[in-house]
Amino acid sequence: MLLRLFGAQLGPNAKIYPTARIWAPWKLICDEAAAIAEDAIIYNPATLHIGSHAIVSQQAYICGATHDYEDRSEERRVGKECRSRWSPYH
């Protein structure tokens, strides 16, 4: 996958649709079975970590920036491992 060539860390079965736009692939971490759907935009000036089985839906916009100059964290997180009773992954 092209994103890996630019430094993205993608877990097993992670699915990134070709129309998704990633601002900084070298700052993207996707755990197992994470998905970024069609036309989603990921703006990640800080490292963005998408958790296991999390889904960024179609045309969603994820902004990993902040105006808080005192915030020293270098990572933003989206989702947790899915534990829904409806999920086939629990």
Structure commentary:
With 90 residues, the protein is mainly beta. It has one domain. It contains one helix and ten strands; from the N terminus they run H-E-E-E-E-E-E-E-E-E-E. The chain has one helix spanning 2-5, and strands spanning 9-10, 15-16, 21-22, 28-30, 35-36, 41-43, 47-50, 55-56, 61-63, 75-78. A four-stranded parallel sheet has the order 1-4-7-10, with no helix packed on it. Strands 2-5-8 form a three-stranded parallel sheet, with no helix packed on it.
* Poorly predicted spans: 81-90
Alpha-carbon distance between the termini? 28 Å
Measured as a percent range, the helix fraction is under 10%
Count of domains: 1
- Spatially, the strands of the biggest sheet line up as 1-4-7-10
Mean pLDDT: 84
Please compute the radius of gyration using only Cα atoms. Answer: 13 Å
Helix and strand succession? HEEEEEEEEEE
What is the topology?
Elements: H1 2-5, E1 9-10, E2 15-16, E3 21-22, E4 28-30, E5 35-36, E6 41-43, E7 47-50, E8 55-56, E9 61-63, E10 75-78
Parallel strand pairs: 1-4, 2-5, 3-6, 4-7, 5-8, 6-9, 7-10
Overview in brief:
Helix content is 4%, strand content 30%. It has one helix spanning 2-5; strands spanning 9-10, 15-16, 21-22, 28-30, 35-36, 41-43, 47-50, 55-56, 61-63, 75-78.
